[in-house]
Amino acid sequence: MRVPSQAELQERKRVQIGIETTSNAQSTDFPGHWPGENHEWNLDYIKENLNVKFHTSTPFDSEFSLIGIDTSVANAFRRILLAEIPTLAIETVFIYQNTSVMQDEVLAHRLGLIPLQASRRGLNWMKWYQKPTEEDEGSGAPSDYNCAILRLNVKCEWQEGGLQRAARGETDPDKLYVNHSIYARDLQWQAIGKQAEMFADGPIQAVNPDILIMKLRPGQEIELLMHAMKGIGQDHAKFSPVATASYRLLPTIDIMKPIIGADAKKFARCFPKGVIRLDSVTSEEASELDCKENEVKAVVANPMRDTVSRECLRHAEFKDKVKLGRVRDHFIFRIESTGQWESEDLFLESVKLLKVKCQRMRRGLDAMMN
Amino acid sequence: MSTYTTAGAQQQQQQQSSMAHDASSSTDERARFVEYSCGDCDAPVSLKRGEPIRCRSCGHRVLYKKRTHRMVQFEAR
Ligand SMILES: [Zn+2]
Predict the structure, then answer these.
(1) What is the per-residue pLDDT across A296-320, written as a single tens digit (0 to 9) for each?
(2) Percent of chain A with pLDDT over 90
(3) Which residues of B fall below an 8 Å CB-CB distance to A?
(4) What is the dihedral angle through the alpha carbons of A349, A353, A359, A360, rounded to the nearest 10 degrees?
(5) A261 and A312 Cβ atoms separated by less than 8 Å
(6) Is residue B71 assigned to a domain?
(7) For A331, which of A4, A224, B4, B60 is 20 to 30 Å away at the CA?
């Protein structure tokens, strides 16, 4: 059996980027593509080659590299992150009074989009809410284990002496009215049944208390009740746990012929800061490169920061000296959480969900065969 | 209006009483009045049937009817 060299394998998984083209984008490491080579799926091979490297990790924003995995799997993780991890969000709004300038349906929509946070234990304990069906009488009743109640009761009024100040020309709402702005922090959660116990270490509240929901003026009043339920991004974007999860492939920059002096400085300017470093040429390199000692030379410092703008390819002097590309199996993931779960947990959750889906698939296949 | 039930029967009763809005108790005595606000001085005016349409504090004859306290259900979508 033919075993390809490391260099050949690396070349195979390099997406080539030309001035106006990309080529070699398709992966070829599957059985039957390369004559005499074995590319059968192999768990030991995956275990040995899979690599995860963290670049930044804050609770709600993390960036990491997932190396040695096929696009189909990496993309499955991304799509699960966006659309299939459940979160809690406001789903129904019962409006008793709304004399503000905002229409009821606009207000309800805004409330639905507010990201909520709560105790992990409580959120895991909560179950899906099933909508009532015609066949089953009494189904779809909201209960403590699938629905949280939040209230919002605000009335705007004149401050003491506000009217007189307004007559004198004062326009600052802070000096004229009370409750002139409703923020996400004004949502009041009301624990029902077992919720008080399950959410003991973290009440249901807005992640960002300073979200401005609406503004009021004296005499205007809001009185409403909300039901928050668990749902997934597939149903509505408000349930998506991420404020986007995306990946990009690791860019590569190969300098084929040395770029020296003024050219090197121009070359560095073709890339974002930090991608290209300027080193001074040493005495032994100088004779080899046919240039003076201590002249600057362009060196690739950090290709990860490149945006692959291809700017360098527009200049005739660099065209044949540089090769741009991307590594097909190096995914730089960026997961930004909306605040209900931590970014790291979200990725693990997506892995768990994919596993569950695979098991379901296998059960289905087993049932089909028997 | 949706009713809210919990697993425990005791809690259920508690729930339903808390969910039933206070509308029923306060409407009885106020049912005959309708709330308006004055188009000129913005003062609240409550009128009974047959009363002249006129603001009590400034005498203005244009009154705006207020939104009633009826619940409307919306999907937050
Ligand atoms: Zn008046």
Answers:
(1) 999 999 999 999 999 999 999 998 9
(2) 83
(3) 1-8, 11, 15, 21, 37, 42, 66-67, 69-77
(4) 150
(5) no
(6) no
(7) A4
